[in-house]
Amino acid sequence: MIQTDTDRTDGTGGAAAQDIEAEIVEILCSILDAEPEEFTAETRVVAHEKWDSLNSLETMVAIESAFGVRLDLREYHATRTVGDLVGLVAGASGRS
After folding, report:
1. 15-68, pLDDT tens digit by residue?
2. CA-based nearest residue to 28, from 48, 9, 8
């Protein structure tokens, strides 16, 4: 795997969960016009007042672009929380 200066690694070849979470929160804030304080690992993204099918797909594309991964659509739609998204990205990063 070729690493770029935007890759975030924890020394084991996978992106560090804390870095993944921070980037996902940034993406969610941008798409949902929200504040970072609104999101923790336990936050149910699907319950956010601005979450809809279009924002969901926009978020998926932004995550794939930010982390250089391909997410399985079924697995993505099964996520409910920020923590679920972190786990999905970490798993996808490990498969890259």
Report:
1. 588 999 999 999 999 999 999 999 999 999 999 999 999 999 999 999 999 999
2. 48
Instruction: Tell me the pTM.
Output: 0.81
Q: How far apart are CA 55 and CA 61, in angstroms?
A: 10
Q: What is the residue range of 62's domain?
A: 17-95
* Count of CA atoms in the C-beta half-sphere (13 A) of 24: 26
Indicate whether 7 belongs to any domain.
no
Angle of helix 53-67 relative to helix 82-95, nearest 10 degrees, comes to 40
- In CATH, what number is assigned to the domain containing residue 31? 1.10.1200.10
Calculate Rg over the CA atoms of the chain. 13
